[in-house]
Design brief:
Elements (H helix, E strand, L loop, with lengths): L1 E7 L1 E10 L5 E6 L5 E6 L3 E6 L8 E3 L11 E3 L5 E6 L9 E6 L5 E6 L13 H7 L5
Amino acid sequence: MCSCVLFQVHTKFHCRQAHAPGSDTSCLSFSYDGVTLASRGGDDTLKTWDIRSFRKPLGQVTGLTSFFPMTDCCFSPDDKLLLTGTSVRKDEGNGKLVFFERQSLQKVYEIEVADTVGYTYELCSAESLLIMFPDHI
């Protein structure tokens, strides 16, 4: 069973079914406003949670292939976007950086990673991505 736990001296929030049983929760990332938590799972999902009512996700995106138990997610500095990476098996295409609108989780942009790298699991800071790709985001 895969679960997410937020601690505050004692266990304050616990959602035992945050991601599919048997899969890893590879990343937890807080929004800059401190109210929304994003979680990335080995069940190929990205979910958002309101930490004030932590029983079920605000939203989720499925089909985000992840072959690595360390796939990252993060919020953009203005808190408007949420991004993560996807991965592929060797010689089966390219991994991607995928950008979602924070509130609706609608995909707004994706960037393919060079074919020499089949995975995207560790993101540099969102600020760095905005500097590297200012015309695309």
